[in-house]
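Quick one:
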Amino acid sequence: MEARLHILVVTTLFNKAKMNLACATMNFAAAKLLLEKAKIILATKNPILQKQKP
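Output:
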């Protein structure tokens, strides 16, 4: 009985870790997207950056 409970706890912790990893990956992707958006906004608003573009 104790061993089964231990396996359940480990499995639960593992699943939590997997979810946290998925969340972190999504947050990272969202942050990258926001960074790209910010770059585009800066490039369109800032004439100095526009001149640097080929």
